[in-house]
Specification:
Blueprint: E1 8-12, H1 25-37, E2 42-45, H2 57-70, E3 76-79, H3 85-97, E4 102-105, H4 116-129, E5 136-141, H5 143-146, H6 152-161, E6 166-171, H7 176-182, E7 189-192, H8 201-204, E8 208-211, H9 218-226, H10 231-245, H11 249-261, H12 280-288
Parallel strand pairs: 1-2, 1-8, 2-3, 3-4, 4-5, 5-6, 6-7
Length: 296
């Protein structure tokens, strides 16, 4: 397990690939390094923004290897959750082999409703089957997509049963009342998915944020993390988040990364997602791109 728990400002990085779904290692590493050099404390690889659930096991393994071989693994967490336990175990073992700091794990999201005892058993098996190469595990709460919410009681039960493995959660529900409840669990690190929440991190005991829109201006989020009472920073971060989130988030983030880099590979998204097309969306997003560091 990592001796350096993840915390602070974390970008949920997108995955660049060709139209035929070939991973572009150079573009990926360039963007990851840019994020780390411009304010990110860590990166979340192969999350929702990384389109992990549209990639094969082989593709996910390749992205994991590219990141771990090119970046400081102590500053990386990686999404390993899938609906089936065997694949989740295999990906989580790979994360440990590559010395990632942590794995971010979705619940098994096909069968619903699921009793909490069933979820507890599933995560218990994941812990047991990865115990030979233990890695910190974070619950990934995203009920809008999975149809499953980790109740605060279940999160506390898992943390109590496996305190050396279950370290916290990323909450993408957008419900900060829920996130605040999670953050009252002793020793349980909570990362809301909206960097605007950093303004309340000290009060609400958040460990940071894991956000798609941090990819656009990590420096602003980092400044807010350090100066949480700065109302000008709060409004700056809120404005960016709202502007990007007005569009399909994965496609919008990739469009803006493409604007920063000038690399058209970032225009590709995996079906069923669709790229930002013609119309007024590119112009509105390009207005946001004025705050990006442009390529030399």
């Amino acid at each position: 397990m990592s001796e350096h728990p993840v915390k602070g400002v974390i970008a949920a990085v997108p995955t660049p690939f060709s139209a035929s779904r070939e991973i572009d290692a150079d573009a990926f590493v360039e963007h990851c390094r840019w994020c780390l050099d411009n304010g990110c404390d860590a990166l979340n690889v192969l999350g929702t923004t990384g389109e992990a659930n549209s990639l094969s096991f082989t593709q996910r393994s390749l992205v994991m290897e590219i990141a771990a071989s090119s970046l400081d693994a102590d500053r990386l967490m990686v999404g390993t959750g899938t609906p089936d336990l065997a694949t989740t175990v295999a990906l989580t073992r790979r994360a440990s082999e590559f010395r990632y700091a942590a794995a971010l794990v979705l619940p098994p999201f096909y069968y619903k409703p699921i009793p909490e005892d069933g979820l507890f058993a599933w995560f218990g098996e994941l812990v047991g089957q990865t115990q030979a190469r233990p890695i910190d595990l974070y619950l990934y709460n995203f009920p809008q997509l999975t149809g499953i919410e980790f109740s605060p009681a279940l999160a506390a039960r898992l943390q109590s049963a496996f305190p050396d493995r279950i370290r916290g959660a990323k909450d993408s529900s957008g419900n900060l009342d829920y996130a605040r409840q999670l953050a009252t669990i002793p020793g349980f690190a909570v990362f809301p998915s909206n960097e605007v929440s950093l303004a309340d991190a000290g009060r609400d005991n958040y460990a940071g944020c894991i956000s798609a829109t941090v990819n656009i201006d990590p420096a602003a989020a980092a400044a807010l993390w350090k100066n949480q009472s700065d109302t000008t920073l709060q409004e700056d971060v809120r404005s960016l988040r709202q502007g990007v989130a007005a569009y399909p988030l994965v496609a919008a983030v990739k469009h803006l990364v493409g604007r920063r880099t000038g690399n058209p590979v970032w225009n590709n998204v995996a079906a069923p997602n669709m790229a930002i097309g013609d119309g007024d969306a590119p112009a509105r997003l390009d207005a946001i791109a004025g705050r990006l560091v442009q390529p030399a």
